[in-house]
Amino acid sequence: MAKTKYIMYDCAYCHKPTKMELVGEQQVEGAETPSSKAWYRCTRCKHSTLINRQTLTKGKNGDLANIDRSSCIRYSKEQVFKVGQVIYHSEWDDVGRVIAKQKTSDGTQAITVSFEKLGERRLIENVQASFEPEFPQSISTP
Length: 142
Ligand SMILES: [Zn+2]
Fold this sequence. Notes:
There is one protein chain. The protein is mainly beta. The protein has no helices and nine strands. Bound molecules: zinc ion.
Protein backbone atom coordinates (compact mmCIF):
# COMPACT_ATOMS: atom_id res chain seq x y z
CA MET A 1 0.00 0.00 0.00
CA ALA A 2 1.40 3.35 -0.99
CA LYS A 3 1.78 6.09 1.53
CA THR A 4 -0.51 9.05 1.13
CA LYS A 5 1.59 11.60 -0.63
CA TYR A 6 -0.97 14.33 -0.81
CA ILE A 7 -3.01 15.83 1.98
CA MET A 8 -5.42 18.69 2.27
CA TYR A 9 -4.06 21.29 4.63
CA ASP A 10 -4.78 24.85 5.61
CA CYS A 11 -1.78 26.53 4.02
CA ALA A 12 -0.38 29.38 6.11
CA TYR A 13 0.55 31.32 2.98
CA CYS A 14 -2.56 30.75 0.90
CA HIS A 15 -4.82 31.08 3.95
CA LYS A 16 -7.05 28.30 2.71
CA PRO A 17 -7.03 24.52 2.47
CA THR A 18 -4.76 23.45 -0.34
CA LYS A 19 -3.35 20.24 -1.67
CA MET A 20 0.02 19.62 -0.02
CA GLU A 21 2.64 17.26 -1.36
CA LEU A 22 4.83 15.22 0.96
CA VAL A 23 8.43 16.26 0.42
CA GLY A 24 10.26 14.81 3.40
CA GLU A 25 10.05 13.21 6.79
CA GLN A 26 11.53 14.87 9.80
CA GLN A 27 14.12 12.83 11.61
CA VAL A 28 14.50 13.62 15.27
CA GLU A 29 17.78 12.56 16.80
CA GLY A 30 17.45 10.41 19.88
CA ALA A 31 13.70 10.14 19.61
CA GLU A 32 12.17 6.87 20.67
CA THR A 33 9.34 6.96 18.21
CA PRO A 34 9.45 8.07 14.58
CA SER A 35 8.50 11.67 14.18
CA SER A 36 4.93 12.37 13.25
CA LYS A 37 6.04 15.56 11.61
CA ALA A 38 6.83 15.81 7.94
CA TRP A 39 7.50 18.50 5.40
CA TYR A 40 4.74 19.21 2.95
CA ARG A 41 4.85 21.60 0.02
CA CYS A 42 1.84 23.55 -1.01
CA THR A 43 0.97 22.77 -4.62
CA ARG A 44 -0.34 26.30 -5.04
CA CYS A 45 2.32 28.59 -3.60
CA LYS A 46 5.15 26.02 -3.34
CA HIS A 47 5.90 26.96 0.24
CA SER A 48 7.01 24.10 2.43
CA THR A 49 5.51 23.63 5.88
CA LEU A 50 6.32 21.27 8.70
CA ILE A 51 3.09 19.49 9.50
CA ASN A 52 2.31 17.30 12.45
CA ARG A 53 0.41 14.45 10.90
CA GLN A 54 -0.99 13.39 14.27
CA THR A 55 -3.22 16.42 14.19
CA LEU A 56 -4.45 15.65 10.69
CA THR A 57 -6.07 12.28 11.08
CA LYS A 58 -9.14 13.31 12.98
CA GLY A 59 -11.78 10.71 12.40
CA LYS A 60 -15.15 10.22 13.97
CA ASN A 61 -13.68 9.45 17.35
CA GLY A 62 -10.78 11.84 17.16
CA ASP A 63 -7.46 10.41 16.15
CA LEU A 64 -7.33 7.88 18.92
CA ALA A 65 -8.51 4.81 17.06
CA ASN A 66 -5.08 3.86 15.85
CA ILE A 67 -3.03 4.54 18.95
CA ASP A 68 -0.41 1.88 19.41
CA ARG A 69 -0.68 0.88 23.04
CA SER A 70 2.87 -0.34 23.23
CA SER A 71 4.12 3.15 22.44
CA CYS A 72 2.00 4.79 25.13
CA ILE A 73 3.33 6.04 28.39
CA ARG A 74 1.71 4.23 31.27
CA TYR A 75 -0.17 6.66 33.47
CA SER A 76 0.91 6.99 37.05
CA LYS A 77 0.08 9.89 39.28
CA GLU A 78 3.71 10.48 40.23
CA GLN A 79 4.64 11.30 36.68
CA VAL A 80 4.49 14.61 34.89
CA PHE A 81 2.91 14.65 31.47
CA LYS A 82 2.93 16.97 28.52
CA VAL A 83 0.10 18.13 26.33
CA GLY A 84 -0.02 15.91 23.28
CA GLN A 85 1.42 12.86 24.99
CA VAL A 86 -0.42 9.59 24.60
CA ILE A 87 -0.88 7.67 27.79
CA TYR A 88 -2.22 4.28 28.77
CA HIS A 89 -4.34 3.92 31.90
CA SER A 90 -3.87 0.36 33.10
CA GLU A 91 -6.79 0.36 35.55
CA TRP A 92 -9.25 1.54 32.93
CA ASP A 93 -7.52 -0.30 30.09
CA ASP A 94 -7.85 2.78 27.94
CA VAL A 95 -5.56 5.02 25.99
CA GLY A 96 -5.86 8.74 25.62
CA ARG A 97 -4.11 11.92 24.65
CA VAL A 98 -3.28 14.70 27.06
CA ILE A 99 -5.18 17.72 25.80
CA ALA A 100 -4.69 20.17 28.66
CA LYS A 101 -2.94 20.76 31.93
CA GLN A 102 -4.28 22.47 35.02
CA LYS A 103 -3.12 23.48 38.43
CA THR A 104 -5.83 23.45 41.02
CA SER A 105 -6.20 25.97 43.81
CA ASP A 106 -4.65 23.62 46.35
CA GLY A 107 -1.58 23.21 44.19
CA THR A 108 -2.43 19.82 42.77
CA GLN A 109 -1.40 19.37 39.18
CA ALA A 110 -3.87 17.76 36.85
CA ILE A 111 -4.11 16.78 33.23
CA THR A 112 -7.17 16.50 31.02
CA VAL A 113 -6.99 13.40 28.89
CA SER A 114 -9.20 12.53 25.95
CA PHE A 115 -9.62 8.79 26.25
CA GLU A 116 -10.49 6.46 23.42
CA LYS A 117 -13.38 4.79 25.25
CA LEU A 118 -14.08 6.94 28.29
CA GLY A 119 -13.90 10.36 26.71
CA GLU A 120 -12.48 13.30 28.60
CA ARG A 121 -11.17 12.58 32.06
CA ARG A 122 -9.13 14.55 34.51
CA LEU A 123 -6.18 12.88 36.15
CA ILE A 124 -3.78 14.10 38.77
CA GLU A 125 -0.09 14.20 38.04
CA ASN A 126 3.17 15.01 39.74
CA VAL A 127 1.95 13.61 43.06
CA GLN A 128 4.61 12.84 45.63
CA ALA A 129 4.40 9.35 47.10
CA SER A 130 3.56 10.68 50.55
CA PHE A 131 0.76 12.86 49.25
CA GLU A 132 -2.23 10.95 48.01
CA PRO A 133 -5.35 12.99 47.59
CA GLU A 134 -8.59 11.30 46.77
CA PHE A 135 -9.54 11.65 43.18
CA PRO A 136 -11.65 13.19 41.72
CA GLN A 137 -12.91 14.85 44.89
CA SER A 138 -9.61 16.61 45.43
CA ILE A 139 -9.90 18.42 42.14
CA SER A 140 -12.02 21.40 42.83
CA THR A 141 -12.60 24.33 40.59
CA PRO A 142 -12.51 27.65 42.35
ZN1 LIG B 1 0.06 27.73 -0.17
